[in-house]
Amino acid sequence: MSRGVPQGRPRTSRAWAGLGARHLVLGITAAIMLFPIVLTVSTALKTPGDVKVNPFGLFTSFSTANIESAWTTGDFSSYVLNSFLLSVPSTALVVVLSTLGGYAFARLPFPGRDLAFYLVVVGLLVPFFTYMIPLYFQLRGMGLLDSLVGTNLVLASTGLSFGTFFMRAFYSDLPTELEQAARMDGASEWQIFLRVMLPLTTSAVGALAVFTFLQNWNNFLVPLLYIPSGEYRPLTTGLYLFLGGRSVDIGPLAAGTLITILPVLVLFVTMQRQVTQGFLSGAVKG
Amino acid sequence: MSGPAPAATVAPPPAPAPRRRGRRAPSYAYVAPPATRRAQRRLGIVFVLPLVAMVAVFLLLPMASAVYYVFVDFNGINPQPPFVGLANITEVFGDPEVYDALWNNVIWIVIGTLAPLLLGLGLALLLTQVRRGSVFYRTVFFVPFVLPQVAVGVVWGWIYAPSRGWLNNVLEAVGLDAFTTGWLGNPDTALYAVLATAVWSQVGFVFVIFLSALRNVDVDLVDAARLDGANGAQRLRHVVLPQIMPVLLMVFTITLLGGFSVFDIIFVMTGGGPAGATEVLGTYAYSSAFQLNRISYGTTLALLITVMAIPFAVWLNRLQRRTSLEGGAT
Questions:
Q1: A90 CA to centre of own chain
Q2: Where is the composition biased (Low complexity) (chain B) (predicted)?
Q3: Which of A1, A189, B17, B284 minimizes the number of CB atoms within 10 Å of its CB?
């Protein structure tokens, strides 16, 4: 049985015209999708004088002055560092805990398994909004407000429900014969996980890692709420702060925007397949 | 990436894990020897313990506190807030600002769900009919979705700028000067301007999901319909759409539930203004709690969002399960 909407070479001139029309619509859409990014790059790389005269126009001059001023006086250098310090540990935490948990929920019978699973996936049902305010006071009480540790733990916990659900689906799909064969050969339960099962799901683990990293890097509300003093302010809230003095400094603002989206764009373009596949299997399975 | 985040607000999961085509689901028909069962039990508990601990402290505990906050009057300082019963809840129902915000939420949910759905489906259908450049189009359409909403808000702010903004420039260039306005500063246009930005950033996500659903459509059925004389629209309506129905409902659920908890893009672009024109429950809850120090009232508003979203989640999930049982493609 063949799958997918049929494709074929157009045979008539009418069919060729149809193909041209399709490319026209797709091309215009692509231009609309790309335009804001082009605008960011062009505004960021103009000379500050040119930005004053012609704030939103496309390239007419070239200079790195805006980037330099965002990097130094705009403090974007420290925001970049903070963004990494807030996304890398939280992502690692989500990936490790979700993989272990997903495996246990899928393959290891233990008492209280169903109850524990439902408790973990409650996070898929209840939006962050519901508990964000009490969480602020809870973190304050724990001394974790304005801290890298506290913010990382919150970022990780918002991703755990999805991550566990996602990994459990993958581990559920693996055939039982594999672990039985390994057990016959004398492998311990830990060895079965580490040597047999984990290697079979590395692509899922990778997709989860990329997906979670993007989520955490882009997260705005969590650092906005839980880093009130701004000591470890990441790019997202840093850019928002910069926006406060809008209309004045469009050049450095564009440069700051470029600095904020550049890592995301690089990661996305290099890992394009994994990102879309990850989103896809996540959404379809989830 | 936030807004209708796929991860945060997905419908409730069905108890058994969904199967992938052609793979076998695990069965525990094989009875492991007691020693193995003991080892599995031990490893299972060790694997799940840190996960459950984190979820308990950072999800379940604050959720329980949220419910407690509704029934007291907490100002963020008083360690022993007075019990007020249902006062917060009755105040919500008597607050005209809540109704205005709710109305904006409704507009947001209706347009913000339907527009990406239709555009995403249309683009996906178009792309299945071209070969050249499909990887390029796919990548480009998806880019806005991975960008942080703050950055998206900044750039669209320039497009909407009252003087020399791109949108007004284009309107002037084509002689539609009468329609130029300060898009984000005008109460009549602000909500729709922000909404258009949100649609721009969401459509790629919907598109990619539909694209993969269309790949799984049974071509033989489409061809058979063509031979029976069905035209393009009929083939779409009676052959293609029923097959992608489960996916359509899933996308519908994600965007709909995302619409309830919209925050980032509005907060960044207008902050709820001008004059409350873009205020939604999310921004109102935030400003009540953190700007007016009305912690309990803000929490009550946030809970209201959840309580309203849950029936939709349950209903859609039931619908989705029924359609997939009827044998659609995944």
A1: 12
A2: 1-10
A3: A1
Residue of A51, A97, A128, A129 for testing the chain B interface, max B β-carbons within 10 Å: A129
**Contact between A128 and B8 using a beta-carbon 8 Å cutoff:** yes
The long-range contacts involving B175-184, CB below 8 angstroms and separated by at least 24 positions, are B184/B157, B184/B160, B184/B269, B184/B270, B184/B274
- Hey, which residues does A187 pair with through a beta bridge? none
- Rounded to a whole number of angstroms, the distance between the first and last alpha carbons of chain A is 27
Cβ pair A220, B148 in contact under 8 A: yes
CB burial of B196-216 (b: ≥16 within 10 Å; e: otherwise) equals: bbbbbbbbbbbbbbbbbbbeb
For domain B96-329, say whether CATH 3.10.50.40 is its number.
no
What CA–CA distances, in Å, run from A226 to A83, A136, A235, B152? Answer: 14, 6, 15, 22
User: Taking CB atoms and an 8 Å cutoff, what residues of chain A touch B160?
Assistant: none
Between CA A73 and CA A93 the distance in angstroms is 33
Let me know: does B306 contact A150? Beta carbons within 8 Å: no
> What tens digit of pLDDT does each residue of B83-94 get?
988 989 999 999
Q: Say how many CB pairs under 8 Å bridge A and B.
A: 367
Contacting residues of B for A181, CB less than 8 Å apart: none
Separation between Cα atoms, residue B61 and residue A134, nearest integer Å: 9
Mutation site, A103, A128, A130, interface B, largest B CB count within 10 A: A130
pTM across the whole model? 0.87
* Top-ranked range on mean pLDDT: pick from A51-55, A269-273, B184-188: B184-188
Q: Decide if B282 contacts B198 (C-beta within 8 A).
A: no
Task: Looking at chain B, list the stretches that DSSP marks H as alpha helix, in order from N- to C-terminal side.
Answer: 34-55, 61-70, 87-94, 96-127, 134-146, 149-159, 166-173, 190-215, 219-227, 232-235, 241-260, 264-269, 281-290, 295-325
For residue B159, the chain A residues in CB contact (below 8 A) are: 36, 39, 56
Q: Using omega within 30 degrees of 0 as the cis cutoff, is the peptide bond preceding A111 cis?
A: no
What value does the mean pLDDT of chain B take?
85
Residue A184, token pair as written in the block: 């016959």
Average pLDDT for residues A45-68, to the nearest whole number? 76
Per residue in A94-121, pLDDT tens? Answer: 999 999 999 999 999 999 999 999 999 9
Dist CA B252 CA B267 (whole Å) = 24
Give the count of alpha carbons within 13 A of A74, CB side only: 33
DSSP state of B21: T
Classify residue B146 as exposed, middle or buried by CB count within 10 Å of its CB (0-12, 13-18, 19+).
buried
For chain A, domains (ranges, CATH) are 15-63 (no CATH), 73-285 (1.10.3720.10)
Report the candidate in A239, A43, A25 with the shortest Cα–Cα distance to residue B166: A43
**With the CA atoms of A201, A205, A211 and A212 taken in that order, what torsion angle do they form, in degrees rounded to the nearest 10?**
150
